Amino acid sequence: MPSYKLTYFNGRGRAELTRLIFSAAGVPFQDERVTDWPGTAKAEAPLGQLPYLTVDGEKIPQSIAYTRMLAKRFNMAGNDELEQVKTDVVVDTVNDLQNAYYLKVFKATENRDTVISKFLTEDALVNLERIEKLVNLYGSEGFSVGNSLKWSDLHLYDVTSIILTLSEDILNKFPKILAVRRTVESNEKLAAYLKARPETPF
Which UniProt keywords apply (predicted)? Predict the structure, then answer.
């Protein structure tokens, strides 16, 4: 079996999707959490940024690229070419929501209440509506695509968990998204990981 090491800060952020995939697949990996940044870690990172994945000693940057590779290895990318592209479409649309959050909320240092309110009523709702539509088109009850767990389900769960910290009821109008979240939380391996994972600043 290949050896895997995931290197990131002591947070969930852009590494949590990868951790969820390893957990769902039951594949062991080294979860390296950098606390001294930049220190020597920045120079050791392939592009001078985190996260990156080391596979059998080879460092791979760009989290979506290597996470897609893992999804294929662990049979969570889609059962055929069409299902794979549908899964990628959902992942990319969830990325739109995640990127808007990081750009507008995570980095905000002034007027955060106003920034969050604007994000929730504009960016978040628009992207959640798009995701709900895609899950309705491509998925079945509790899955974003097809009828088995995909990395799109895990990405959707992870990013909406962030959004829920800003508004507890924002997903009430999106039953398909809520059904996917229930599927993830009811998965035995994922439930164990979610219960045991550490509380972190982000």
Answer: Eye lens protein, Transferase
